[in-house]
Amino acid sequence: MNLNTQFVFESKTKTLLIGGMVLGAVCLGLTYFNDDEYHTRFWTNWLHNSVFFTGIALPPCSSFRRR
Length: 67
Known about the structure:
- By secondary structure, this protein is mostly helical.
- The protein has helices at about 10-35, 40-65.
- Helix 1 (about 10-35) runs antiparallel to helix 2 (about 40-65).
- It starts with 10 loop residues before the first helix and ends with a helix.
């Protein structure tokens, strides 16, 4: 298996991905400022998304470790 593979994104794909990240950050900010005084919805969204994306990231890392 060649581990020196590099992924090259076209500029249209980069723009789309960065736009999605900006939209997510704006929505998270709106949730923070329009929430109750303890920011309950903001922190539950943060926790849920952290666990979700960590779960996505860990399986590929563990498959490299076994080899």
